[in-house]
Amino acid sequence: MKNRLSFHLMIRLSAILFLAPCFSACDILGGGSSDGTDPIGGDPSPMGAVGHEYSIVTPNGVSNENIKVTSYEDEVSTVQFSGKVENPFFSEILKSMNDCQVDGNQVFCERKYRITTEGFQNVFENGHLTFMNYKADVGDTYSMKQNGRELKRVVTKVSKKDEYEYAFWRIKTVHVEETGLAMPGVSKIEYVGNHRFGLVGVKLYFEDGSSKNIPIFAQAENE
Predict the structure, then answer these.
(1) 36-55 average pLDDT score
(2) Which of 50, 56, 155, 171 fits 136 for a cystine, CB–CB 3.0-4.6 Å?
(3) What local confidence, expressed as pLDDT, does residue 10 receive?
């Protein structure tokens, strides 16, 4: 049962990597740059340009996945995910999500982001929330309220040397840990970013003590 639960949660997070989390009825805390709610600075990144595609390493149960920027307006990129889901349990989870549509074994999700040469932010109707800032310092915290729960993202590591293995390279990275999600079986999520390659990975930590790293690859890169 423990492995089955972790398997399905891993699929859920990998499939909606750029589309999660979906926060309805959320209130942004504060308004200063220190809490990550101001629009992040920097120039528009080619990773947020129309037509740009991302790829992820998906587990069994998800196939024909496509993650693509479909529009860019007012410095905000719309990212869409589509794919084939051949697991009834996973399909039921996606059907319950506001930003996903499931038709048979086909799934379609959409989410808006601000993607610049300085980082990534979720863009909601009532504000922004940073989840990756390449210029961050350890201890920086970005937070918001969602359905009475506090969603918190904390910078836990900023590497000073090339040590993170990414494809054929070792790179410097920024690590942000997220807590406060109402996800059974998941204790926290860790986002990993690099100023050149963007968001390079997401690591899921499960309540049973296990974890799963999901690499992310972008077509373009920052200069």
Answers:
(1) 95
(2) 155
(3) 44
